[in-house]
Amino acid sequence: MSETTTDHDKIRNWAELHGGTPAVVKSTHGRGGVGIIRIEFPDAPNSKNDSLEEISWEEEFFKRFDDHKFAMAFEPKSNFNKIISRDSAK
Q1: 81 three-state secondary structure
Q2: Three-state SS string across 5-19, please?
Q3: Is the alpha carbon torsion for 46, 51, 55, 57 positive or negative?
Q4: The 21-25 sheet, strands edge to edge
Q5: Which residues pair with 71 in a beta bridge?
Q6: pTM of the prediction?
Q7: Whether residue 34 has pLDDT greater than 90
């Protein structure tokens, strides 16, 4: 059963509980902003993704998250997550 939230603390706590870190797609980073954000799970099997770069939670991830009015759908007991628009979350 998935949940959807915009709460920064809930997102960070869930991600850290599952070994996740904030990341950006490298090819989109630095072009006038952060770029495409993701939660990366570096210790998960087969998760090594050279196209992602770790970023800060507050100054980069959540700033982009709020500026673009994103929400996050996630499964509390797994590392499944998807960043979606807040409009589609309703």
Answers
A1: strand
A2: ECCHHHHHHHHHHCC
A3: negative
A4: 37-40, 21-25, 52-54
A5: 84
A6: 0.87
A7: no
At residue 88, the pLDDT reads: 86
CB 57 within 8 A of CB 40: no
Q: How far is CA 47 from CA 7, 34, 68, 89, in A?
A: 26, 22, 26, 27
Locate 59 and state its tokens: 């100054």
pLDDT at residue 7, rounded to an integer:
98
Instruction: Say if residues 71 and 5 touch (Cβ distance below 8 Å).
Output: yes
- In this structure, the strands spanning 37-40 and 21-25 are antiparallel
pLDDT grade, residue 31 (50/70/90)? low
**Sequence spans of domains, the chain:** 3-84
- pLDDT computed for residue 47 by the predictor: 66
Rg (CA), the chain: 12
Q: At residue 1, does pLDDT exceed 90?
A: no
